[in-house]
Structures are given as structure tokens and as C-alpha cells.
Amino acid sequence: MQTYRGSCHCGSVVFQIEAEIDQVSICDCSICCKKGILHYPVQDKHFTLIEGRESLSLYQFGTHEASHWFCNYCGIHTFGRPRMDPSRYTVNVRCLDDFDNIVENANEKSFNGKQHPLDR
């Protein structure tokens, strides 16, 4: 596994993951479309929030099962916990330091979140 470091735009929130990123997901649910993020799921043991816990705000809607964390200062969504599997984090791959290289070498998978009955 490789170590990837990521952050929000202003650098207040910094995190690290251990992963082999061979595929990223694009979700078309209401919030993911507006945020424009690329997802990568990570088990808790492979996710570390290095700094910025106090700089994070939580956004939830609908069933309040999914958690969307974003920076209080620059507004960037860095990671969350998906409704489909709240035991994992899903990181915004666009926040990783080596984003261009990661995406160039990963397959993209679409997820039909728009048709999920709880996407309201």
C-alpha cells in the first residue's frame, strides 16, 4: 500500500490514507454532483486526520446517515462517511497531493446515486 497525503485548499485540514488507488468513483447523487468530487473508500484503520479537526464542519441531510465533512475556512469537502457503508471513510481524491498522477492511473467508475430512493 502507498501513503497519500491530502488537504483542503487552505491547508487547515490535512489527512493521510494508506491505499492502492486503482479505481475512483463518480456519484451522480444531488450532493456529489454539486461538490464535483471523486470518491475513494478507505477503511478506518487506513485513514488518519493529521490536523484540522477544529476546522471541520459536518453537513448531513435527508436520513442523516451520511456525513459530509468540509473545511470551515475554504469550504472544501475533504472526506465523509457514505450512507451505503458508514463504517468507511470516502475521501475526495481531488484533495490528494498527487491528484493528477493518481487519476491518470486509475479507472473511473460511475455510481448511480441519483436513483437512490433516499437521495432527497
Features:
single chain; Metal Binding Protein, Guanine Nucleotide Exchange Factor, Chain A; mainly beta; three-stranded antiparallel sheet; 2 helices
| Beta-strand residue fraction | 35-45%
State the name of the first-level CATH class: Mainly Beta
Written as H for each helix and E for each strand, in order along the chain, the element string is EEEHEEEEEEHE
Number of strands: 10
Write the CATH architecture name: Beta Complex
Give an account of the 3D structure.
This protein starts with a strand and ends in a 9-residue tail after the last strand. The chain is mainly beta. The model has no long low-confidence stretch (mean pLDDT 88). The chain has a five-stranded antiparallel sheet with strand order 4-9-8-7-6, with no helix packed on it. Strands 1-2-5 form a three-stranded antiparallel sheet, with no helix packed on it. The protein has two helices and ten strands; from the N terminus they run βββαββββββαβ.
Topology:
Elements: E1 2-7, E2 14-19, E3 23-27, H1 30-35, E4 39-43, E5 47-51, E6 56-59, E7 67-71, E8 77-81, E9 88-92, H2 99-104, E10 107-111
Parallel strand pairs: 3-10
Antiparallel strand pairs: 1-2, 2-5, 4-9, 6-7, 7-8, 8-9
Give a quick summary of the entry.
The protein has 120 residues and is mainly beta.
